[in-house]
Amino acid sequence: MADRPGPAAGTAPPRGGAIEAREARLAWGLVLPALATVLLVALFPLAWTVWESLHLHDLRMPWLGRPFVGLGNYAEALGDPRFLQAMGHTLLFTVATVALELGLGLVLALALNRAYRGRGLVRAAVLIPWAIPTVVAALLWRFMFDAEAGIVNAVAMGAGFMDRPFVWFVEAGAAWVPVILSDVWKMTPFVALLLLAGLQNIDASLYEAARIDGASAWRQFRHVTLPLLKPAILVALIFRTLDAFRVFDLIYVLTGGGPGTSTEPIALYTFNSLLQNLRFGYGSALSVLVFLVTFGLALLYIRFLGADLLGGGE
Amino acid sequence: MASVRLEDVHKTYPNGHVAARGLDLSIEDGEFVVLVGPSGCGKSTALRIVAGLETPTEGRVWIGDRDCTEVPAQDRDIAMVFQSYALYPHMTIRDNMGFGLRMRRHDAAQIRERVERVAAALGLEEFLDRKPGQLSGGQRQRVALGRAIVREPQAFLFDEPLSNLDARLRVQTRAELRRMHRRLGATMVYVTHDQEEAMTLGDRVAVLNDGILQQYGAPLDVYRRPANRFVAGFVGSPSMNFFEVELRRGDGGPRLAGDALDRALPPGLAERAGAGPFTLGVRPHDVELSPSPETRDGAPEADARGRVDVVEPLGAATLVHVRLSAAGSTDGPEVRAIVPPERAPAEGAWVDVQVRADGLHLFDQATGRRAG
Amino acid sequence: MNRAARWLPVAVVAALVLATAFPFYWAVVSSLTPEARLFESPSLLPGELVLDHYRALFDERNFWVPIRNSLVVAGTTTLFCVTVGSLCAYALARLRFRFRGLVLGFILAVTMFPQISIVSPLYLLLRAIGLINTYPGLILPYMTFAMPLTVWLLVGFFRQLPAELEEAAMVDGASRMQAFREVILPLALPGLATTGILTFVYSWNEFLFALSFTLGPERQTVPVAIALFRGQYQVPWGQILAAAVVATAPVAALVLAFQRRIVQGLTAGAVKG
Hints:
Chain A is mainly α.
């Protein structure tokens, strides 16, 4: 007892004994395959993208080689009108869809919370739009808004709203309608289910207490529901914002970014720069910019919610 | 069976919380020792360190002759009964009980024989092919016991196994545990926060507080001679009365005075006690009450005087709360007394309070340690 | 007031189901409508119903091929991720080691990666090792989202299991891995199933990587095949919609069968219970 050297009693830091060491070794053995895979296919390419973004690399002009240009690509991007427009489009799409999805989703969640019968079936039914490929959803809506075969025009003309078929995908502003509608159609049920789970976690006795205190339905909503729903709203908000910002599949299939480039989001512009224009250096810079914004938003997420999710389970 | 020893065990968690400070605990082969204390005192930590589920920051753990400090839980050959029983929900009772033997590679016949023998002894034969979810709380508890017994381990560890049972079942199971201990002659280490459980079950009781061992001895020793103020207040129900007093030397001999109480100090105690000031502890069982007239002049002959505040009939005895008065005011400290029901005073009555000479426990006011 | 409060939620939900179902209904009806009538003025109620488009889909366009490709890619991805990911998730959920928080945070962060940011280096990498237009050439990139998703979901499921069960197993003589195999895995089976379903759905629906890393019909997955349908004179809506119906049917079946599990899995990690 006395012959073992060590810090003073009660002040010793956690000792790395044999048992801890073995546990740590086992842990790393279990974690490494998954971690290595992710590092290889995610982190390594990302690093490469950053590297590429600092070079001029145009596959259409291979004789130029791959000279280092520092932040030249980024400078070009910030002055590129098409890039700035793409950012604008992305912002418009994000704000519109997130606002609509959260608003409608909340209404739906509240309704689903009250309607007790057939809940399982309804849940399944509303999950299907979320579960199908975005491509398929886009095609369904493309068809519905088709100038000649589309049901939208048929109904609108039948109801007297228009006398000639309106070509949605050729008018710059109008093309946004099917784009936003299809995303809202696909994702609102998902948001509603997230919020519903949050609603169901609120203790019913809180409403009873509020009712006894004389609170109207609106006040109950404002002072009981909303505050306790905040974590769920935050999760839905951040999931949807990140997804909306990265939108690609939907617009690629629905409008191809058109007419022209009037619905082109930033992910699609990056894609075109890379695989159509073959400007790897420039496209990589755009990729990095997309990544930085997304990651910034993701950090926000970890900041506000991650503390709970990462810390638990000692 | 084997002895269990904790040697100068310290445990500090990564978040800074200190759960154990210098615990030295020696449990003899075949002994039933209870670790008791309030929540957070470190008793569960100490148990888990013996089990191997936690490693001490400092110190060593001995099971039998073996230094097990670096030995992982699965190789320690001890069995544990958890507070929530921790039965494997997806396995039958038979498989639950046989799990440990299977892990240690006993052959199937031997496992079957042992499981059925223990199940019979615990009255669990009819449940062997059911799953834990189909059993009641009491039955599950027996399965948890059976799982431990089947292992024939070097020591049994119990982590508050009775807390989830209702009061009647708890008392019943307590007796069963003592019987089991007698029959198996096993080394048992038992953790509880209930001091009554500790006193009735243990050969020896270890009282812990704030990670430090306060006292370690036979139940009656701990009850009769608590080593410090904490143990005195923790062990025994209803709990001890405490008065802050000073030692006064007058013509009539040494006296203890303070908190509306004034009592002569027996000479033997006076020599051993020291100078004071003291905290005087008196158990309710050692307080005697007698009727007192409304007003009294002159020096009272009783140790203290007061008015009855609340009378609680407990059945075989009655607990009386008395508000002591000093210098005319009735706002002194409260003292509790246990009296026979037929001698219980009425609420509001004036009573004289006497403390039995052998019911005086003196503790140093500064350190809390027993004085004399 | 009370009566309105009672039928209003039901009305809203009914509207939701209608709005959700209508595009599918319309797709199914249109896919069964003969080519000639498709471009006439469409009406809500179907007229004549034919199977021409479906026949063309499978006979002429050989739609079995993309289905097969999707099954192989999504299936392999799911199997690999659930197997390897469950081990990783167990370590992250239960074992104590330095940097655990960091690893968990990193994996969470990777789920936020925009695919577009790594498409070009992955393309060059795959081309360098000759994996363009192959199954591994899709399965490997799919790891970027499938593995973190799997680990993330499984950590949530493992955490829900009481820690005392493993402790009891270890005291009983089981090593960590034995406790994992004998006690944790059987109990986590529902969680593993849900994770598998979700991973499969995400892999099946993936578009960008499948578009970028395949060259032709032999390896294209369902989403890509549908998106690239080309007709001789005009957009072959009939066949596209038939393909959409075919693509939706298995997913719909999965969702209907496992809707409770799916919702649990999605919301467990997201909302604190």
